[in-house]
Structures are given as structure tokens and as C-alpha cells.
Design brief:
mainly alpha; disordered C terminus
Length: 134
């Protein structure tokens, strides 16, 4: 199985959150003046900043994949409207936008968009609207 593009940032994120928990615990248990606790407070801020960077990395990857999936869905809808059967189905409806949406949904159910992006082989995600392949 190929590693997920999310593995590295999520692993780093977990590490940053664990570091944050330790640093915050030391900060909360401080007795003034406490130079060690003050350094830990600075470390906590650094851990938060690093965690935010990792979250932005995950967000960027996810948005990219969502756009690719949306583009594939739109291309399939366009193909459906271009092909003869799709035009006949559309012509047999009342021509309302809701009818077109139903045609696209039916086609999507019959031809689900792959959630595997650029050949990545990732495990299925429970609760995801994408149907399993294979």
C-alpha cells in the first residue's frame, strides 16, 4: 500500500499536540518566578505555530484533491450531456434544472468518481460518499 500524502503532516501534527500538552502542563503548574515554565510557554507557542502549519498543509492537500474530484465529476456530467443517450434523457424531461440534477446523480451513482488521485492507493474512508472501487 502506498503511503498517504496525509501521513507525514498528520504525524507531525500529533507530535506538536503532544509537545503542546506537556508544555502547557508545566506552564500551569508553575510557581513564580519559574524560568523553566516560561521556556515551556514559549515552546507551547512554537508547538501551536507548527501545528497550524501542518493543518494548513493538510488543508491545501485536501482542497487540491476536492478540486480534482469536482473537475472529474463536472467532466462526467458534460460527457453525459454530450452523448446521445444523455441528450435523449434530457429531452424526455421537462427541461428543468432539477431534472438535469437527477440525471447527473443517477449517472454519478452508476459511474462513481474515483477517490484515488494520481495513482495513490489509499484505504477507503468510512462515511465517504465515494463508492469503493474494485
Amino acid at each position: 500500500m502506498t503511503a498517504s500524502p496525509y501521513d507525514s503532516p498528520l504525524s507531525a501534527l500529533r507530535e506538536q499536540v503532544e509537545d503542546l500538552a506537556v508544555a502547557l502542563a508545566i506552564w500551569e503548574a508553575r510557581t513564580e518566578p519559574d524560568a523553566h515554565a516560561r521556556r515551556c510557554a514559549g515552546d507551547a507557542v512554537d508547538a501551536i505555530d507548527a501545528a497550524l502549519r501542518e493543518l494548513h498543509s493538510v488543508r491545501q492537500q485536501l482542497i487540491s484533491e476536492i478540486r480534482q474530484a469536482d473537475d472529474a465529476t463536472a467532466a462526467r456530467a458534460d460527457a453525459l450531456l454530450r452523448d446521445q443517450e444523455g441528450r435523449q434523457q434530457w429531452a424526455s424531461t421537462s427541461g428543468r434544472p432539477g431534472d438535469l440534477l437527477n440525471l447527473i446523480r443517477d449517472d454519478y451513482a452508476a459511474h462513481p468518481v474515483s477517490k484515488r488521485i494520481a495513482g495513490a492507493d489509499r484505504p477507503e474512508t468510512p462515511g465517504c460518499r465515494f463508492l469503493p472501487e474494485g
